[in-house]
Every structure is written in structure tokens, then in C-alpha cells.
């Protein structure tokens, strides 16, 4: 990591709690510079605006999270354990940091305004990774997708939709984890024969 990358990372690390505390609109570049322990001039050498900085933070968070999801789905273990852990990694990386903030709604709205393409790309990547993992599990006879028409992509979309529903019903934290585990248990019942479940 070169000096510019290191400084940018330092700034992004400092900026996240500032955005969480004050929200996007009320956060100033001076607030971020203060939190990063640098001058405003130094901050502007790395980022031209608050919007550019916020977008850079979104790019980094989505990239790191999708790497974590890919690693999780590529590990050993049952397909159900891997999917459950991948869902939790997605939530922990992209939702949980803002979950307890009074400014969460505003921050999510700012993300959709400034980084909608990044969010959409991450969603597409998530669906692709889930589809691949489900197709491989079906091919290896770990699961049987006959009951869902042998369509891993459709099941991947259902998993993502369930993840969104659980988040909206329970928020993040222990309730989200319990809801995820319940959904995965139902998924297992739907995609494994009684022989495989035994």
C-alpha cells in the first residue's frame, strides 16, 4: 500500500464513525479531517468532496464484504452453513455498521444516491455467488433442486429476498441471526430428501 492509499484508508476509517454519528448532510469535511487527525488541506489532497469520499467508502466496504462472502461460500462445510455464514457476512459488512445509528435511513439514502451502481453490482455478485454455490451443491448431490425446478438462480434470488425481508422485519443483530437460521432450516427441508437430512 503506497502513502496515498494508506492515507486514504486512514481517512475512510475515520470518516465512517463520523457519518454514523452525524449523518451525511451534517457531516463536514472539517469533521472528517479532525477525526482523521489531518488538516483539511491534506484531506482535500485525497478527496475533492464529501460526496467523493462517501462513494470511496462505499466502494471499499462493498469490495471487502463481497470478498468475505466469496471466501465464505468457497470454504468447506455444508452448503447451508456456508450460505448462512455468507448472509451474515453480507449484513455485517454493509448493514450492521449503520444499524444502531439514528442516521441509518439517511445514510442508506445517501448511498443509493451516490453509489447506487456499486450497491447494484454487489447485489449481482451476491446472486452470482449464491447461484454457483447452489448449482455445485446440486451437482454434487448435497441438495436436490428438483422441487424448485432445478433453477439455482431462482433459489439464489429467493434467498436474497428472504435476507431483505428478515432485515426489514427484525433489523440487525441477534434477531436477524435467528431469522436467518430459521430460513436456512426451511431451505434445507425444501432442498434435501429425507435420506440426505438423516
Explain the layout of strands and helices:
Elements: H1 3-26, H2 29-36, H3 40-46, H4 50-74, H5 79-94, H6 96-99, H7 104-114, H8 116-139, H9 152-170, H10 174-191, H11 194-197
Helix pairs in contact: 1-2, 1-4, 1-7, 2-3, 4-5, 4-8, 5-10, 8-9, 9-10
GO molecular function, one term: transcription cis-regulatory region binding
Protein name: Transcriptional regulator, TetR family
Organism: Neorhizobium galegae bv. orientalis str. HAMBI 540
Strand content: under 5%
**Tally of discrete structural domains:** 2
Approximate helicity band: over 70%
CATH fold field value of the largest domain: Tetracycline Repressor, domain 2
Largest sheet: none
Spatial gap, N to C terminus: 50 Å
Runs in which pLDDT lies below 50 for 5 or more consecutive residues are: 194-198
- Mean pLDDT reading: 90
CATH second-level architecture of the largest domain: Orthogonal Bundle
- Structural class determined from secondary elements: mainly alpha
- Care to count the β-strands? 0
User: For the CA atoms, what is the radius of gyration?
Assistant: 20 Å
Report the CATH C-level class of the largest domain. Mainly Alpha
How many helices? 11
What is the H/E string? HHHHHHHHHHH
InterPro entries: Homeodomain-like_sf, HTH-type_TetR-like_transc_reg, HTH_TetR
GO molecular function: DNA-binding transcription factor activity; transcription cis-regulatory region binding
Protein name: Transcriptional regulator, TetR family
Keywords: DNA-binding, Transcription, Transcription regulation
Amino acid at each position: 500500500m503506497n502513502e496515498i492509499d494508506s492515507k486514504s484508508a486512514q481517512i475512510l476509517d475515520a470518516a465512517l464513525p463520523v457519518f454514523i454519528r452525524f449523518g451525511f448532510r451534517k457531516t463536514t469535511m472539517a469533521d472528517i479531517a479532525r477525526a482523521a487527525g489531518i488538516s483539511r488541506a491534506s484531506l482535500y489532497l485525497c478527496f475533492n468532496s464529501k460526496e467523493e469520499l462517501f462513494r470511496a467508502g462505499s466502494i471499499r466496504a462493498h469490495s471487502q464484504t463481497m470478498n468475505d462472502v466469496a471466501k465464505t461460500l468457497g470454504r468447506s462445510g455444508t452448503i447451508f452453513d456456508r450460505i448462512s455464514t455468507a448472509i451474515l457476512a453480507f449484513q455485517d459488512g454493509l448493514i450492521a455498521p449503520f444499524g444502531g445509528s439514528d442516521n441509518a435511513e439517511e445514510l442508506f439514502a445517501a448511498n443509493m444516491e451516490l453509489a447506487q451502481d456499486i450497491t447494484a453490482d454487489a447485489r449481482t455478485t451476491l446472486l452470482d455467488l449464491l447461484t454457483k454455490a447452489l448449482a455445485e451443491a446440486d451437482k454434487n448431490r448435497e441438495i436436490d433442486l428438483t422441487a424448485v425446478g432445478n433453477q439455482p438462480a431462482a433459489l439464489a434470488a429467493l434467498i436474497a429476498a428472504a435476507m431483505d425481508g428478515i432485515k426489514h422485519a427484525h433489523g440487525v443483530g441477534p434477531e436477524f441471526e435467528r431469522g436467518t437460521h430459521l430460513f436456512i432450516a426451511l431451505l434445507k427441508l425444501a432442498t434435501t430428501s429425507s435420506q440426505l437430512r438423516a
